Amino acid sequence: MADKAYITPSILKWARESARMTDEVAAAKVSVSIDKLKAWENGISQPTINQAQILAKAYKRPFALFFLSEIPRDFQPLQDFRKKDSKPLGTASIFIIREIQQKQAWISEVYEEDKENKIPFVGRFSINDNPKAVAKDILETLGINPANYKLGNPIKEWIDKAESNGIFISRSSFIHTRLKLDSDEIQGFAIADPYAPFVFINTEDWPAPQLFTLVHELAHIWIAETGISNEIDPEITDKDKFNPVELFCNEVAANALIPYDIITNLETHTFSSSKEIYSASKHLGVSSFAFLIRALNINLLTFDKYRKLKHEADIEFKAFLKKEEERKAKQKIKENKGGPNPYLLQLNKNSRLFTQTVLDAFRGGFIEPTKASSLLNVQVNKFAKLEAQLYK
Q: Could you list the residue range(s) of the whole structural domain that residue 360 is in?
């Protein structure tokens, strides 16, 4: 008979519930009935050691935690800036938030213990300031000029500049292959820490919304408002349903990505066709919708002209989505044949800056191999493959 794991029942139940996992899903993980799982959670019987280890892995908790006498203190939930009727956070969203919180807490503690200087722009402004001033400061601090992107890939330039200024940028669309993130739940979040600010971007969406989300979350850093966002969109109706912080950060993002002096000096200011709009918006790395809303808000467009161009853009966007579906289908076939480099995916998920910091600490003997492996979610003997992606 397999050895029993004499776990603390209340902790087993807490671990499942804090992972936002239903008893049906959890029971399926260990191939037992729901009644059997509930018996474990109520202390009527005990799982085997192997079953408890499987559940610990499923809940993303250390196995030893199940044997504590009482429920441990956990990371505090991030403030939820989403609409009140937003889709509840599911298991994938909870896991990515917890993972980033763990990374952020570690690096922040290291920097504070080493007496590193606090980052001056974290909390430099508040929601009571002018969003144009915040946008201007973000551009100047990061050294970005939207009129002259250097790399031909705006989001990459934004990420590189943000990380060179001490902001950790994590990007992913999944926890693992069977647990995907849902952009209806979460598009991004920010941890506005003065030593180690972190931004997470859900990459489920296409690049233009990702860039808008990134700059929106940077605005959270600049006003020191840690929290979760979704429905980040320049075209917001029913503004009463939105948190004022979200509306403010959206306005900052619009001003930073489509500055007034740039949009008014573009040849497209005549706005004669949606093709011109698409060309200008592509250069700036934003969607046609974001571009049109910005033009409408600063009175470069009448509402009738906006409605006409938006209708044209809607048609083109549907065609774009069809092409995207075809591209994703081809990508899926490609992934089934080998897929994208797993170390590149993990690098983006960790953040390049975080990965380099942990590897430097490991090479310098400042942290144990097991700790480095845990922080990076990569086996120590695979570090070279992960590090190789840093220089590509």
A: 342-391
CATH number at residue 52: 1.10.260.40
Of 92, 163, 145, 165, which is closest to residue 348 (Cα–Cα)?
Answer: 163
Instruction: Say what the alpha-carbon torsion angle 319, 324, 326, 332 is, to the nearest 10 degrees.
Output: -170
- For residue range 368-381, what is the model confidence (pLDDT) as tens digits? 999 999 999 999 99
The tens digit of pLDDT for each residue in 298-316 reads: 888 888 888 888 888 888 7
> Does residue 237 sit in the same domain as residue 382?
no
Residue 198: beta bridge partners?
168, 191
How many Cβ atoms are within 10 Å of 389's Cβ, its own excluded? 17
Residues 123 and 269 occupy one common structural domain: yes
Residues 324 and 357 in one domain: no
Residue 134, pLDDT above cutoff 90: yes
Residue for token digits 């969003």? Answer: 131
Residues 62, 144 within the same domain: no
pLDDT band of 247, cuts 50, 70, 90: very high
Q: Which one, of 97, 129, 132, lies nearest residue 19 by Cα? A: 97
Classify residue 240: in a domain, yes or no.
yes
